[in-house]
Amino acid sequence: MQDTIERELTVKAPKERVFNAIADPTQITAWFPDSVEGSLEVGQNPILDFGTDGKTQIHVVANQPYDYFAYRWVPINADKTSGFVGDILSRPNTLVEFRLQEGPEGTTVKLTESGFASLPAELQEKSIANNNEGWDYMFDRLKKYFD
């Protein structure tokens, strides 16, 4: 069973601007959720609203400007639909991590989502497939945000 999804993208922007696009509730909505209800500070449990795809609550694990941002979420609900609002830490979940590194070509964003092997067996395959497709789509939107 695949446990991890990884993506990497380099954008022509300073690391501070890229970090804010990932960890600032007023900027993340330009490429990821339609809206954010709450704070993206460590220990908080904001709700990301993806419109017709539903709402998903996250638990912010790390917010280290301008290098690292991480949260936990339930990638698929028990009824096999997207979106979960509730106590993330009481359910099997995955860890989403964004690592930023500035270089001569711009800022590289490294995404890792791990923990799929800890999900219930009947949800593992669908979760990994959905999130693989989802991160491709979202990273394309993030790239376009900086183009």
Q: Number of DSSP strands?
A: 7
User: Briefly, what CATH class?
Assistant: Alpha Beta
As residue ranges, the low-confidence spans are none
What is the third-level CATH name, the topology? Alpha-D-Glucose-1,6-Bisphosphate, Chain A, domain 4
Oligomer: single chain
What string, H for helix and E for strand, traces the elements in order?
EHEEEEEEH
Domains (count): 1
Overall average residue pLDDT: 93
Kindly provide the radius of gyration, computed on alpha-carbon positions and rounded to a whole number of angstroms.
15 Å
The neighbouring-strand order within the major sheet is: 1-7-6-5-4-3-2
In words, what does this structure look like?
With 147 residues, this protein is of the alpha+beta class. It has one domain: START domain (Alpha-D-Glucose-1,6-Bisphosphate, Chain A, domain 4, 2-Layer Sandwich), CATH 3.30.530. It is 24% helix and 33% strand. The chain has 2 helices and 7 strands; from the N terminus they run βαββββββα. The protein has helices spanning 15-23, 121-146; strands spanning 4-11, 35-37, 47-49, 55-64, 68-73, 94-103, 106-114. A 7-stranded antiparallel beta sheet has the order 1-7-6-5-4-3-2, with helices on one face. It is globular, with a radius of gyration of 15 Å. The N and C termini lie far apart (36 Å).
